[in-house]
Amino acid sequence: MNTLDYYNKFAKHYFDITVNADMSRQYEEFLHFVPRGGKILDFGCGSGRDSLYFKNKGYRVSALDGSEELCKLAREYTGLNVRCMNFEDFNDKNCYDGVWACASLLHVDKSKMLDTLIRLRDSLKDSGHMFIALKNGEGVEITPDGRYYNYMKVSDVEKLTYESGMDIELIYMSKSVSNPNETKYWNNFILKKTK
Predict the structure, then answer these.
(1) What domains does the chain contain, in order, with CATH numbers?
(2) What's the predicted TM-score (pTM) here?
(3) Which of 22, 33, 46, 24 is nearest to 105 (CA)?
(4) pLDDT tens figures, 116-146
(5) CA atoms within 13 A on the CB side of 130
(6) Which of 73, 135, 139, 174 has the fewest Cβ atoms nearer than 10 Å?
(7) CA 65 – CA 82 distance, rounded (Å)
(8) How would residue 35 be classed by pLDDT, with cut points 50, 70 and 90?
(9) What is the pLDDT at residue 181?
(10) Is pLDDT above 90 for 180?
(11) Residue 193 Cα distances to 34, 72, 90, 97, 174, angstroms
(12) CA nearest to 43, candidates 110, 2, 1, 95
């Protein structure tokens, strides 16, 4: 089993354990940088929890995920036309005021992180902002359930941000909001596209 197999097989379980997670701090920090009513991409939307929040706040939301089963659940939950696509196929250009990549980039192969960040940067309008959340740590792990994780320290993300043509506006750490037993901390970043 690989990462997508896991999310397809256990989509309902994953939906149930994440859909009610309290993301209020992350929302507040991110939306401070996004114009009211702006266009937001939820990159790796999972349950659709965050997409629905942004939609209900009056933002125009585009959502995508790699898991076909999660996309079905997210469509039902949000009423949005959630796109199902592999992250490496994403190629939108210059159309979002904000990109929200919450707990999705940690499943991207470490060797493809820079390319992924560049494509997300290119999807932003000039001076657009991106939120990313990654588990703090080093190296990669394939968990017993088959999911691939890449862990990054703040310095790793700082290097990737510079190389991808963005600036870091904000960094803060947080605990897991969906798993009280999680021992790893999350590094949260808000990045700005530089012209």
Answers:
(1) 3-193 (3.40.50.150)
(2) 0.96
(3) 46
(4) 999 999 999 999 999 999 999 999 999 999 9
(5) 31
(6) 139
(7) 7
(8) very high
(9) 77
(10) no
(11) 12, 31, 18, 10, 24
(12) 95
